[in-house]
Amino acid sequence: MGGNGETMPVVRGRFRGPAIVAGVLMLFSFGLATPVAADGRSREHIPTYDVVLSIGVDGVLYVRETITYDFDEEGEHGIVRSVPFRHGDRVYDVRGVRSSSSTGAPSRVRTTKFLNNVRISVGDRGREVSGRQAYVLEYEVAWAFTPRDRHDELVWDALGTGWNVPIGHAAVRVVAPVPLRHVTCRAGVPGVTTRCLRDRDGPFAVDFVQGALAPREGMTVRVRLPKRAIAVPPPRYVPPRWTGDWTGTALLTLSLAAVALLARRPAPPRQVGTGLGAAGFVLVVADAVDDIAAHGPWAFSLGDRSLAGLALVIVGVGIVCGRRHRMV
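and the corresponding structure tokens:
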């Protein structure tokens, strides 16, 4: 009893410092992500956001976004636009990204794929900008149309829900090579939306406008075109991120329980842990290679082989760390 009472404060002390540091960093990061003025309102905002969605006869969606952004007085390196390339099993091809600035702001573009989005970073890491700047983004989206029995359908969020600043005025124009008879728009967040104001109709173009959008609110456009009005390639689907059955999930769960048991009992030799970890790593790599070879570099999903491999890695690392702890 006396020995346990002496070690508990030491264990708590080990975790208390990192926990405090992590909490401070989270609060600091949140404060940087949402700058506010003295009256509690966000300093940064988007005064105007104009989008043109041009539907090509080849079934490709051509997007042009003109974004006017008011930066904080302290300055930022640019803007980041997140465009989804995956919804569940459905994937899109976001390509041909270009950018420019009519106000002379740095407009170098960099794209990275993170989770389900393509992150388009516009600016210069070595140069900050402040005040009001204007950017133009252009890109293409393939596999965006869904073929139905009697029509072909496009559902697309023209602004996205990744902006953490308010948008004063947004306008979305839909342009098609055939007359547009079935076009709608909803503004807001998923599950809580309102109709966009239909500003102007033409035979081949429809305009929607919306004012005072809060952070994370977008404008989703739904377009229905007659069959064979444009070429619509079949949608592309890839396996979900988690494709493991109950066996792989059970192995992963048991591995966590095994680590807890290893902490109480003499651990096997360190070489056993290293071997298990290496075998698990090989299983994960083999599963990843199969997915990537069949569907592309971002199609990797956690199947039973990956889960079994992770289980072996967890047990192996537990053995190695357990032996090291006992040696100390």
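(Above: one complete record from the training split.) DSSP finds four helices and 18 strands in the chain.
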